[in-house]
């Protein structure tokens, strides 16, 4: 069913409301018979997308509410999450950063709601990979990740004034297949073995815009 504007050729063109054969509904802008411009698409499953369309595909800025309660707000290209966006997971975790081909890809920050810990670093095809920093309540880890886990040389920096240098040695684990919806990262990832090498003092650092206090 369609209720809205049409052009001289009788195509849906302008603003209109439509009920699709599968029970989904769309209200928004059309161009020559296709969803183009701003609109809101309600899925029969309970999901909802509101944002920009180009020739029937999500394209531009938009927000998608998934049936599990998660939400993505950001850039879309050709129906895929691509560009910059924020995903709020059903468990309260968040990822803010770059996306490519529907997956976390590039630079991004993942925040674990329960612990408040953050992963700040690189992602490849939805997985933590490359240089990164894990920030915990009173310490942080700087190193590299491979296939979602730390690997190789790195260091722990503790707030009470020292650094522990070492390396991560890990065994390969079989990976499961991914579903269409983004799934939050596991709370307790498979821990590789940390081998400490030495402990040093913190590297002194003074912010550029602050002067040392007067004697």
Alpha-carbon distance between the termini? Answer: 79 Å
CATH superfamily of the largest domain: Histone H3 K4-specific methyltransferase SET7/9 N-terminal domain
The assigned structural class equals mainly beta
Strand percentage lies at over 45%
Average pLDDT: 89
Number of domains: 2
Give the tally of β-strands: 17
Can you tell me the CATH topology of the largest domain? Histone H3 K4-specific methyltransferase SET7/9 N-terminal domain
The quaternary state of the protein chains shown equals single chain
The count of helical stretches stands at 0
**Secondary-structure element pattern, one letter each:** EEEEEEEEEEEEEEEEE
User: Would you identify the regions where 5 or more consecutive residues have pLDDT less than 50?
Assistant: none
CATH class of the largest domain: Mainly Beta
Radius of gyration: 23 Å
GO biological process, one term: axoneme assembly
Region (Disordered): 1-31
Keywords: Cell projection, Cilium, Cytoplasm, Cytoskeleton, Flagellum, Meiosis, Repeat
Subcellular location: Cytoplasm, Cytoskeleton, Flagellum axoneme
